[in-house]
Specification:
It is a single chain. This protein is of the alpha/beta class. Helix 1 packs parallel to helix 2.
Amino acid sequence: MKISVILPCYNAGAYLSACLDSLLAQSMRDFEVIFVDDGSRDDSLALARRYAEIPNIYLGFNLLCEPEVHSDQVYVETFQPIVEAIRKESPDRCIVADIHDGSLTGEGMASLGVALSYHIYEPRSFCSLYANQQSYTDEELESVTWPYQDKNGVMWDAKAMLTAPMFGERGQATILDLKATADKYGVGFMIGEWGIFGTPPGQLLSKTYNRDVVYAFYKDVITTFEEQGFGWCLGNGWMGEYGIVTPYPAIAACNYVPLEHSNFYMDTDMFAFYQKMLK
């Protein structure tokens, strides 16, 4: 029996993606969504049309964010039944596995036809500034540039990030290694999370990088990812990192405005930067 889900909407763009994502994640597949827009003045209608045009193969199912598995064999043994169950209900759904342990190569999950995702945190002393902010003086912050030189004298730019081993340890896979594994098995690959991280929830940061340095970092990384053909997703805002939307005004130097019909805030300068960058 086919079920129709009627979704009335008026200026609900801030919530619409979460709503539609939730519907698409249901185990039951035999349903339709009827979207009824009541003259919205925001991006609700555009978002609904975008979802209507996306084939199911492009709607991903992330098995688990940063699973604590320490070998490719254990990853397969743990998640293969889940992969098979998802495919039984939704054969054309794209399934994604996070590679988040230095002992993983991605071979096991890619051999199952599962796409690979990696969260990049290197150079850690740059990207995780806020977790270690007490160790930086104002003078040190003012001297930071991108490309960036760490305290060991190593120079970093986006291309250096591609060849950095996972978690900065020798002998572990790099982004390019994981991409080669994905290509070997004909599956997708993406950077599932990246950015400037580390604010404990609820804290306000008074010390930060110069905005021009932040922009230089994001522009370099985005340009390099695009050149490599990587899909990418900027890290979420729950930790208050630099991004467009955050659950609280976390950085004193940023210009935030509350989003209408939402508990979130938007960094207006970062929004303008991304609009310009991604045109």
